Amino acid sequence: MADAPYQPLAARMRPQRLEEYAGQHHILAPGKPLREAIEAGHIHSMILWGPPGVGKTTLARLMAGASDARFIALSAVLSGVKEIRAAIDEAQLHKQLGEKTVLFVDEVHRFNKSQQDAFLPYVEDGTLIFIGATTENPSFELNNALLSRARVYVLRSLEEEDLLELLRQALTDSKRGLGALGIKADEAALRQVARAADGDARRALNILEIAVDLAEAGELNEAVVAESVQGNARRFDKQGEYFYDQMSALHKSVRGSSVDGALYWLARMLDGGCDPLYVARRVVRMASEDIGNADPRALSLCLNAWDVQERLGSPEGELAIAQAVAYLAAAPKSNAVYMAWKAARRRVEETGTLEVPLHLRNAPTKLMKAQGYGAEYHYAHDFPEAYVPGESYLPEALAAERFYEPVPRGLEIRIGDKLTYLREKDAASDWQRIPRRRAGGGK
User: Fold this and answer.
1) What does the pLDDT look like over 216-268, one tens digit per residue?
2) Which residue of 175, 201, 239, 390 is 20 to 30 Å from 254, comparing CA positions?
3) CATH 1.10.8.60 boundaries in the chain
4) Which pTM does this prediction carry?
5) Listed residue (115, 95, 90) closest to 105, CA to CA
6) Contact yes or no for 112/34 (Cβ under 8 A)
């Protein structure tokens, strides 16, 4: 009799009953609505959103089994219109026979809009129960029409204790697991596997299977596990949810003056393979948006770090970026320039093409001089302190606008004092080119 075809340990240990399912207690604990729906055999269309290896496919299979429904699986990576049509035809046939069908679509976010729309009428008329699995944020990757017909469940990375229980089951199960091999594994080695798996059950079982193959005399220890773990275990995607979440965490740590938090998220991103030059560019943005003129040296330091990364690469460049990030987090904070710039742009959009006042225009020709260009312009350097009290440099309609309001932190304390002093000189001057108005343009 021929030997049974090889199956990876992760495939052999796939749970057959809901009681064997690891993790996701927040949606599957006794009394939770989804748990009760599964036990009652009344499941509904849904989207399972979570990282790899947390049991999305397994949960879909268990729900289909509990509902006595046929299970059809498609992969959005490999399937197209032909496969979708065939799955729908099969579901319609079994509907006529009084049978329910669960259509499971893995990586559903890879289907385009028209492909996602193809399921809608058959979800509505009960031809099939649609279950989509995705590692990407459904809000961005799935159609609103599909989302409105399917409830979204968020699946989380498995906790270390969940992974440990799964590993122990694999080592003791003699039918599906490794129990027949009599492997002895110490607790420290199993925890090392669980940590290396980083919340991914499939990865945990794959590491365990490799480690068992390398173990000598049936002894599984930390040295063997270390040899079995290859590459980077931390999750990171260069254009997906983890990417933007971690960049957001880095930026907010800087803004919140947490040096430790900023350095941690920087390390996470670089460890995951993020391009250091991308990080350097975003760090420059942080210098202008959140530190600004409270400490203008921050921008120069960030530009220098970017330059070091471009010139020298890693690890020197990464260290320079880390230096800049630490400085930004510890620096006094001001978003005054950022808010002023937004306000100025908003007023440009609101007020259209306001004319440049004549006194601010250049007059290189006789005609332009005759038109009054540059007339009554006061050269600031001819005045005490190089300042013309009462002069206006805005269009007449915006003469009293104030966009920049320094905060009382860092160098902006002195900048604010200077602006207050100049405004007092304006108020005390004998003339105003433009009548004074309140901020916002009201008289």
Assistant:
1) 777 888 888 887 776 555 555 555 567 778 889 999 999 999 999 999 999 98
2) 239
3) 160-228
4) 0.62
5) 115
6) no
